[in-house]
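ok trying this again, last paste got cut off
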Amino acid sequence: MTLIADQKERLDKFLARSLPEHSRTKLTKMIDSGDVLVGGKALKASFPLEPGMVVELDEPQNTEAHDLTPADIPLDVIFEDESLLVVNKPRGLASHPAASLKEPSLVNALLARHTPLSSAAGDFRPGIVHRLDKETTGLMVVAKNDIAHVLLAKQLESKTAERRYFAVVAGMIEEEKFTINFPIGRSKMNRQHMVVDPKGKRAVTHLKKIARLDQGTLVAARLETGRTHQIRVHLRSVGHPILGDNLYAPKEYANCPMQLHAAYLAFDHPVSGERVAFYATPDEQFVGHAWVNEGIIEPF
């Protein structure tokens, strides 16, 4: 579809005014993905339009309502108080509903517990301060009110909260410790994929080799930034894809459950200010299960 700017206005505000039936979030995502062209060029959401400029985009798809039906799914709750809870998310459970998701998510399971949940992340992501990919197991913090949510989110953004993972990757890693510092952006060829992109957002992952396994190498990963699919994309970019990753690993390495587990989570409690830390052992489908313990994922 083609729209003509009729006044001086930011690109995102112009689209929101011109297409009120669609959310501004959806339209901004289209701009950020390069799906909106001004004079044939993909520009930023803040680009200042002038009257007469031609804006081209595909007709935005109507978003289906997200299913917020409570679902009786057992959860492994590691910690809970009046402000938050920490849950060990199982494999195969999405963090929150999505239009494309046909089965219940962690949010649906939380709603079935009648847990009070924050609204700061939007109607279809109550309580969700950060997310894990569907096939990734491990620790997530869930906020019960908006004050706790904002304070936890700020810690993640400022990197004062800590997240560490175990992963089993293809091949033998020689370095004992190393850092991958490659920017990440969304693939223009496949919108479900993230890629290393010089024009992408800063992404830094710190890694430590734990053990050589028959299947590959067991590593610990510490996130300095939190980009979508960051650990998966970074390890693939250096030739060591995560085993079982059916999005980024070659087929010969994707024939098992995803070998990525969020084992450690630490943050300052939003009420007491006390530093709290949690650890969860990966499930038995994690091939490095026998090797891992809380001590080997201590600071690195």
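PB: full thing came through this time. The CA atoms of residues 18 and 61 lie 15 Å apart.
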